[in-house]
Amino acid sequence: MVRVLDKAAVQPRRTFNPSTSFIIRRSPGRSRIATIQIKIPAVNAQPNRVELVATVGVKGVTGIVQILFRIFRDGVEIFNTQQGIESAGSEQNYAVTFQAVDRNVKAGTHVYTVTAENRTANTRADVVGPISFSGLAVQTRT
Predict the structure, then answer these.
(1) What domain count does the chain have?
(2) DSSP letter (8 states) at residue 28
(3) Which partner for 60 in 54, 73, 85, 91 could form a disulfide, CB atoms 3.0-4.6 Å apart?
(4) If pLDDT is split at 50, 70 and 90, which confidence band does 142 have?
C-alpha cells in the first residue's frame, strides 16, 4: 500500500517548435530544462520514494551528439542517462523520455532539476520541445 505525499509537474513547452528552440550547451556547461518542488512531510513519511519522469524534445543539428541528461535534488546529482542524437537523414527529431526513483528522501521541500549537456565536440543539438517534468512522492510500506 502507498500513500501520496506530494506531486508536482511542469510543462514549459507543450509542443514541438523549432522556431523557439535553444542550443544544448557543451560539457562541462549545462542547459537547465525544467524544475519542480516536492514536499516531504516531517511526520509519517518514511519510508518513501519520489518517482520522477521527464520528456525532452530534441533535434540533432550537426554530427551525432551524445546528450547527458541529469536530475539533481537540491543541487546534488541523483540520476543521469545518455542519449545519442543524429542530425542527418531520417533521424533528426527525438522525444527523449526517462524516469528515476529517489528513495527515502528526508522531510522538507526539495528542488528537482533536469539538465542536458552536449558531450561531443563539434556537434550541436537543440531543445525543440515538448518539455515535461513530473514528480510523485509516496510513502511506502515495507
Answers:
(1) 1
(2) T
(3) 85
(4) low
